[in-house]
Amino acid sequence: MLGVSVSGESSQNDSWTKIVKMLQHQHCGSSMTGLIPFSRLLLPNMRKLGVFPLFMDLLVILCYLGVGIPSVAGKYPLEKRQTKVIYRNPGEYFALNKETGAYLNIENKPESKVANVGEDTNFVCMPNSLELKKFEIKWKHNDVILNLTNTEKYKTNELKTNITIKSVTFQDAGVYTCMVILDMDMKMSKANLTVKGVPDPPVDVKFVTCPSGRAEISWSPGNDNGFRISAYFIQYNSSHNPSLWRTYEEPIKPALNNYYMDLRPWGKYSIRMLAENKLGLSKPSLPTKKTCSAPSKHPDRNPKEVWTRTDQTGKLIIQWTTMIRFYHHGPNFKYRVSWQRRGSTFWNSQDVEDSERGELQVDVDEVYTPYNIKVRAVNAMGDSPQPPFVFVGYSGEGRPLNRPKDFRVDPHFEMQPHEVHFIWEAVNMSERQVQGEFKGYKLQYWKASEGRSEMKEVDIYVSRNSNERGDHRHHRSHHRGQDIRATVTNLPAYTAMRAQVCVMNTHFVGHPSNIANFHTPEGKPGPVQNLRIESYGVTFALLKWQQPNEPNGKLLGYDIGYQSVDSNKADGKIELLKPQIDNPTTLGARITGLKRDHNYRFYVWARTKAGKGANSVVNVKTMYTYLNGTQYQTSNGMPRSNPSSAIRTGLKSYILIILTQLFTIFAMVFQVFQ
């Protein structure tokens, strides 16, 4: 229990004032107030004599003796109407409830915690008077009251008996104090928060010596922040690219505080360091104030990736991955490119002076011929001592010389409205005939009425090592013996078509085969267009539409169906209306015999020899009454294809009313002019 401390001059002044106020609260009389200024004159002497606590006890005794009630069990006297008595422990005062014998206390005190950076942690401070709910709880961090309204950082419950600190940082470490205040009494309890995290970066990083590109580095370790440092890492940059920091290959043992490292030739370097523990890497240290230079040497490597490009006939195009300046190791860096036709003993060479250029083009007479190629790095200090790898490349491809034969529609399959099967003889796949790397075939097709200007193509890939290829979006292909079979889909139905096939390599397509003519059969039509309700009444609806964009055959007519609809949901199966429309030029229908004030959904299908196509849908709600207010009933409540007499009668009545109103208006106007 931490109540009102009385140690120290400032705390004595504060405690004195608080005790006097507490005595007043216990009905000891307002005369106590006069003791406050008097006591401040006595405080310096009482402090020197060490009698301040005794003086406080004396005041308490005098207060309660003044009411004339004898003491109980050696405690201070207490008036009967009082509910609290003030007790003093050494350096402490607290209030005791007379009726229950209980005093304010913190039963569950906050416990010290250890948390890693980024974690959440919490403290609990539970007083013993929760049922009163009159106490106030405040929290301090390093003697500063916390702003618990900052919900991004802190989370508390309603009574503030629990506080959660979100995503702790090193700044959150320290002493947390819970203060419970009830009337004039107050209790405090403290706990520590220790925050652990990645280490601080090393400090005082510097070059000790720097002879001929071998540098000695020293540093001092930073704070490990709760976990032992497991390794150090060196990062370095160069003057030609100071924003790029590279990590040295080897980690450094934590017991060391100096290290020797080899620097790349032909550079001026700065370094920085990082420390690592079980939670991760520290931030980088400050870079060294001084730089260390390394002298030039010949390159220690050659370009790793070398290849040829084959998209230009009559060219040998050699390409490679260029080397960045970091690996040049000296001035006047260049590439020495060599090539040799396979089977020849003579090597050709040419230097490429531009270090950022990764291509050399050479004119050749051969089409798709293999060559041995290699690229070596060279600078002013000499050639790279590493022998370059020899790669195999090819000169440019050409147009395939062979063409497929006997291209035709496959008679083994029935032609479908949107699908056709082809067959043709396989070609010689040798590089000499294909003039490149054989990839397969390119199948071309178009509508006979449009010509090749609207030609479409699908690629049919055939492997040398596999007799069957997987499905393509528009085709399937099979290689059986000397025949190639392919299926092309998504064709237009009921259309005269033409097709041809060509051999293809990586970049070129050969001469086409003979043309195959065919006519796709009829298919089901697409949906009718622009289906709408032109007009409607109590018992009828007039539908209008346009022909499908894709008839896919010869249109025979249209089918119409309907459903009752409840809250935009179809109710029951679709009922087909009869008779159906057998004239494809009829683009509307008047549906009669409908129920008044009722929701309907109408369906319209176009029809060919292959059947009904996709439907189009429109909704309508019939009227409740005619315009003149007269109500009518249908004969049987079922839709019919002919207008009913009720409709004609209603229309005549409506016209008669209008004529009567017009006659009345003319009569009134005539009387005015008379």
From TrEMBL:
Disordered: annotated segments: 285-308
One GO cellular component term: plasma membrane
Basic and acidic residues composition-biased segments: 297-308
Alphabetic keyword roster: Disulfide bond, Membrane, Repeat, Transmembrane, Transmembrane helix
UniProt xrefs under SUPFAM superfamilies: Fibronectin type III, Immunoglobulin
The keyword Hydrolase belongs to this UniProt entry's keyword annotation: no
Gene Ontology molecular-function annotations: cell-cell adhesion mediator activity
Domain Ig-like residues, every copy: 90-194
CDD domains: FN3
Domain of life of the organism encoding this protein: Eukaryota
Membrane spanning stretches: 51-74, 654-673
GO biological process terms held by the UniProt record: axon guidance; brain development
Database matches in InterPro entries: FN3_dom, FN3_sf, Ig-like_dom, Ig-like_dom_sf, Ig-like_fold, Ig_I-set, Ig_sub
Fibronectin type-III domain: residues covered: 198-296, 299-398, 403-523, 527-628
UniProt-recorded name of the protein: Neuroglian-like isoform X5
Organism: Octopus sinensis (East Asian common octopus)
Organismal lineage: Eukaryota, Metazoa, Spiralia, Lophotrochozoa, Mollusca
Name of the coding gene: LOC115216671
